[in-house]
Amino acid sequence: MRVFGRARAGLMRLDDALDALGADGVMDDRVGDVPLTQVVGTVDRAGDFDEEFRLVSAHLQQRWRSLADAMSTGLEPPPVELIQLGELYFVADGHHRVSVARELGRLVIAARIRRICTIAYGMACLRAADLASKRAELEFLRRVPLPQPVRTQLWLDSPAEWLRLADSAQSWALERTLAGCAPADREALAAGWWAEEVAPVLERLRAAGHGLDLRDVQLYATALALRDQRGTASWPTDLAELWPAPRRPRPFRAALPSRTG
Fold first, then answer.
1. Structural domains of the chain in order of their starting residue, each with its CATH number
2. Rounded CA gap, 132 and 137, in Å?
3. CB neighbours of residue 83 within 10 Å
4. Which InterPro entries match (predicted)?
5. What is the structure's pLDDT at 234?
6. Residue 104 DSSP one-character state
7. What is the chain's percent helix, strand, coil content, to nearest 5?
């Protein structure tokens, strides 16, 4: 049933994810079914399984096979114990049960779950390779603490993009301060910047048909980078000026016959 081969990337560690997302308190404990695709990490056994929860430690193979045989005949083991960060789950107890359940093609697993709130949101698509960008997002949110509904939709691929956004937000706050409308605190700065600066730009770009496949923050970050390339600190009246015109395909030309003699 099972082929034990060379490991790929290991499981994401809970400590690494918490370091990138920023712990913000324990919310609750519950029991429920969890989608196995969202069980992506471990508390303390990153070296025993790969990122797909395939066993890579030879000394654990017998235990894995025994559990697989039992679950194949209908035995239901106790719920696993998971830590939840956003849409991600990390195994505290029950790594073999998760591994076997995935191998058997199951979609969910029964679990006892402890949910920990985080400053940056852990989307289901987050993997270890994305943690550097999430750390930059965390630093951005500490400077610009956006409202929670906005945070759940944040995703940028490059840490440098978060620095650009932080500078943009603080430049906006400085302009408001010079105009006699200083934000009361960081929360007011963040909410005002998003509502008065970001949202209107997004509305204009969406209406013009730009960035329909991008999240709001991705679209704004893209437009901001294009504006910076123009060397200006203000938005053009027509935002379409920022967007490169689509390339037109070259007309097809049939090859001319070679001339001889």
1. 12-118 (3.90.1530.10), 144-242 (no CATH)
2. 9
3. 20
4. ParB/Sulfiredoxin_sf
5. 86
6. T
7. 45, 20, 40
- DSSP letter at 80 equals E
Query: pLDDT of 166-214, one tens digit each?
Result: 999 999 999 989 999 888 899 999 999 999 999 999 999 999 888 889 9
Kindly give the pairing relationship between strand 88-93 and strand 80-85.
Answer: antiparallel
Q: Report how far residue 16's alpha carbon sits from residue 126's, in angstroms, rounded to the nearest whole number.
A: 12
| SS3 category, 137 | helix
17-74 per-position pLDDT tens digit = 999 999 998 888 999 999 999 999 999 888 888 888 898 877 788 889 999 999 999 8
* Burial (CB count <10 Å: 0-12, 13-18, 19+), residue 255: exposed
